[in-house]
Amino acid sequence: MQYAAMTFWLLVIVFTALGVHRLWSSLIQPKVVNSLLLPGTLVAQLGYILGLLITGGTVNNTALIKDDDTGEPQTGQDPKPRVPIVGMVIIALLPMVGCAIAIYWVSRYFGSEILAGMETTPIDRSSLPSSVSMFFLMIRASVDLVEQLINVIRASNLTNWRTALFLYLVICLTVRMAPLTGNVRGSLGAILLTGILAFLVGQVTQSTADPLAAAWPLITFCAAVLLFLLMFSLVFRGAVDLVKTLIGHR
To answer: Alpha-carbon distance 250 to 248, whole Å?
Structure first.
């Protein structure tokens, strides 16, 4: 059950990132958003290109940030993989894996204090929203998780450059875990594949270690960051629309 819950929270992370990225892209140009998120954009782009090369796709005239309205990375005229279905999963998987690895190392070197404050969370790693009551309990737990993140950040030394750099890099990397345009189905397959592989690794190593126990604080931390960004973005977008409406009525 805990691996199913992990898969569920990976879905929450990836599609919350998609929601945040689309909200930001609706307020300012997508290429500006991707430029502000440059470290995450670079990692996602490298993973995307590597996935294309592995699956037999072509990479020509690569550009990190496009000038059109999509803001997605440019890879050439025919970037499609030669391996059907599996190729799309691999292409979607590698950017997410790259961002996850980068978050791990960034957390280890710059954000160990903040991550330590998120080790104990209100989210049960073996629970799923399998009923109406469980669904609302999970929503309440998610709000508590965001509140815990805010309290941990407020308690940290925000004037320390390491803390500021950590928060910036985490925002860049988590938001860029959003699926690229046209590859949402590949992202679903990639998340499912990740859950299956984690389950198999857990079965092999269950007598020596619990890999999910080590990864769970990082999963809940990423979920908390993205849920906070989504809440803030929705409020900000609502305020912007309200101001536009008031100005329009004058």
So the answer is: 6
Alpha carbons 64 and 177: distance in angstroms, whole number: 16
Q: Note whether 43 and 99 are within 8 A (CB).
A: yes
Question: In sequence order, which residues have a C-beta less than 8 Å from that of residue 63 and are 6 or more positions away?
Answer: 73, 74
Q: How many CA atoms lie within 13 A of 178 on its CB side?
A: 27
Question: CA nearest 199: which of 10, 1, 3?
Answer: 3
Count of CB atoms situated within 10 Å of the CB of 80: 16
Helix (H, G, I), strand (E, B) or coil at 53: helix
What contacts 115, CB < 8 A, 6 or more positions away?
Answer: 107, 217, 218, 221
Phi, psi (deg, nearest 5) at residue 176: -80, 5
At 111 the three-state DSSP class reads: coil
Backbone φ and ψ of 59, nearest 5° = -130, 105
Q: Is 128 within 8 Å of 1 (Cβ atoms)?
A: yes
Where are the domains positioned within the chain? 2-238
Mean pLDDT in consecutive groups of 10 residues from the start of the chain, 250 residues: 83 92 89 89 88 75 60 52 72 88 89 83 77 87 91 87 92 90 80 82 66 78 93 91 76
Alpha carbon distance 150, 205 (integer Å):
35
Q: What is the DSSP letter of 37?
A: T
Length of the chain: 250
CA angle 196, 198, 201 (to 5 degrees): 110
